[in-house]
Amino acid sequence: MKERSKSSSVSNLPLILNIDDFKGDFSFDALFGNLVNELLPSFQEDSADSAEGHGIGGTDVLPNGHTRTSSDATKFAQGLSAPLFPEVDALLLLFKNSCKELVDLRKQIDGKLSNLKKEVSTQDDKHRKTLTELEKGVDGLFNSFARLDSRISSVGQTAAKVGDHLQSADAQRETASQAIELIKYLMEFNRNPGSLMELSPLFSDDSRVAEAASIAQKLRSFAEEDISKAMPSVVGGATASRGLEVAVANLQEYCNELENRLLARFDAASQRRELSTMSECAKILSQFNRGTSAMQHYVATRPMFIDVEVMNSDNKLVLGDQSSQASPNYVARGLSKLYKEITDTVRKEAATIMAVFPSPNDVMSILVQRVLEQRVTSLLDKLLEKPSIAHPRPVGEGGILWYLRMLAVAYEKTQELARDLRAVGCGDLDVEGLTESLFSAHKDEYPEYEQASLRQLYQAKLEELRAESQKVSEPSGTIGRSKGASVASSPLEISVAAVTEFLRWNEEAITRCTLFSSLPATLAANVRSVFTCLLHQVSQYITDGLERARDSLTEAASLRERFVIGSSVSRRVTSQVHI
Question: What distance in Å separates the CA atoms of residue 273 and residue 534, rounded to the nearest whole number?
């Protein structure tokens, strides 16, 4: 009864399912747990109470929630009359009620969904009508914007034309205003010569020299252009031209005076190493003939061009003591040191030029050209004195070969200087072409001097061999004198060592040909002339060798003939003796 009352009470428990339970993160396990948690705990309590009432001790709990004894399980099973799971009916009823409520909830949801569909369809129709009306309105706005854009474009073009006209008018007004100002200043110069002291303060104020220089150049251009356009047929043209000529003359005098003042200020700033003042003066002087006078003046006042001690030290460094003849190796070392000093000096000047002049490349071009044409040329003139081909110095004093070796050394080192100066910077100057022009006179006559040198060396070697031959064949007495005369009259024998020396001379000459000949045709012609000299030098050696070989063969043939004749005679004598 007790259990039945519990079952009936459980079956009458209210079952509540709310739509909100299915919203959000829905979990079926959680829903099921909430439904059965109220029934299952009571069942577990009843099981525990029934086990205690039968006095069963040491029970084990089964996996389904029931208990059993460890010793008297059989008796307990026979005496147990109640069902194992009495809440089954209550749970079945609970599940049935839950299913009914779920069906009801689904119907409610389906009804709401149907209503929402109808409402959404109604609202969709309204929105479609609204969108259609909006599209028509947008099309109208686009058409309005297109008309407005066209109007704006038209107005903008008109405004641009008006702006161009206004700008042109403003430019004309500015030009006219400047022309009026220039005419006023020109009237000041349109006076008799010597009246420059009566000019306006603009042309005498040292703080406004830049403005004065600009206006003076404009006045010169204006006056000279007007003079060139003046026509003799114009009434009063002669008087106006005469007046402008006076103005141009006065302007030229003023510009010369102003330029000299600026150059003096530039020199003073240069001595004090005031780069800012030098830069300011150079910028103003650039308005006078593009600043050519300032550039040339700066370069001409460099110590390496005006200091006599610098030139003397150059000669001493390269040539050494003038009383003795310098060797090519000594000159090469001296040129290397000197050209390095020149390159360092030009590099220092380049730093100043970059900081001072508005057109530094033009100044560098003038500086490098002055270095090559003055400092290098003066040194080369003393170093490369052309010898006389008809009456050269003896070989013992260097001969023509000394000049050729000096020429090769100077040419090679000067080319290295040109490359170094190009690396430092020389503007638009063709430094390589200028370097070639320094040696053009020497290179034009080089083949003649090379051939003359080879002939001189060859003749000197022949004289040396002839002297050695006379010393070897110099006996005493009459017989010795006759024998020495015969040796002197015989052709000179050239040794292999002498021919080897000939080859060494020509090899050195070919090296110089390669150095001085930039064009393949010139190189071929120079090498051909050197090779011709070599053939001439070794021709006697080859001829003498062939003649000696011929004489040896002739002598061998005569000895063989004598041997053959002697053998035949001895055979005849032997045969006669036997008879």
Answer: 61
Taking the alpha carbons at both ends of the chain, their separation in whole angstroms is: 190
Residues 204 and 146: their CA atoms lie apart, in Å, by 64
Q: Report yes or no: 49 and 6 within 8 Å, Cβ to Cβ.
A: no
Using alpha carbons, list the distances in angstroms from residue 39 to 9, 14, 314, 413: 10, 12, 124, 117
pTM of the model: 0.58
Closest CA to 221 of 193, 196, 187, 186: 186
| Tens-place pLDDT, residues 550-574 | 888 888 887 777 776 666 656 665 6
Residue 60: strand pairing partners = 68
> Tokens 């002291």 identify what position?
197
Sorted by where each begins, the domain ranges of the chain are 91-179, 191-228+241-301, 302-445, 493-569
What is the chain's Cα-based Rg?
Answer: 62
Kindly tell me the burial class for residue 70, based on how many C-beta atoms sit within 10 Å of its own C-beta (0-12, 13-18, 19 or more): exposed
User: Cβ-count burial of 573 within 10 angstroms (0-12 exposed, 13-18 middle, 19+ buried)?
Assistant: exposed
28-54 pLDDT, tens digit per residue, is: 777 777 767 766 655 445 545 554 544
Tokens of 133: 């009306």
168-195: pLDDT as tens digits: 888 888 877 777 777 777 666 666 555 5
Q: CB under 8 Å to 36, separation ≥6 — which residues?
A: 91, 94
Q: Which residue intervals of 384-439 are DSSP H helices? A: 399-424, 431-438
Q: Which of 375, 308, 301, 304 is nearest to 335 (CA)?
A: 375
Give the rounded distance of the alpha carbon of 17 from its chain centre.
85
Of 267, 265, 227, the C-alpha closest to 248 is: 227
Neighbour count for residue 76 (Cβ, 10 Å):
16
Give the integer Cα–Cα distance in Å for 339 and 186: 53
Angle at 555 between CA 550 and CA 561, to 5 degrees: 125
User: pLDDT at residue 61 above 50?
Assistant: no
CA angle 535, 537, 541 (to 5 degrees): 100
Of 386, 400, 408, the closest CA to residue 329 belongs to 408
Please give the angle made by the CA atoms of 354, 359 and 364, to the nearest 5 degrees.
65
244, 190 contact by CB (below 8 A): yes
CA distances from 370 to 298, 490, 520 (A): 12, 61, 32
Give the C-alpha separation, 331 to 410, whole Å: 8
CA distance 295 to 536: 57
Query: For the stretch 98-129, what's the b/e string if a residue is b when 16 or more beta carbons lie within 10 angstroms of its beta carbon?
Result: eeeeeeeeeeeeeeeeeeeeeeeeeeeeeeee
* CA atoms of 61 and 48, how far apart (whole Å): 10
Pairwise CA distance, residues 279 & 191, whole Å: 34
Q: pLDDT tens digits for 405-415?
A: 999 999 999 99
In this prediction, residue 70 carries a pLDDT of 42
Cα 217 to Cα 196: distance, rounded to the nearest angstrom: 16
Tokens matching residue 512: 């110089």
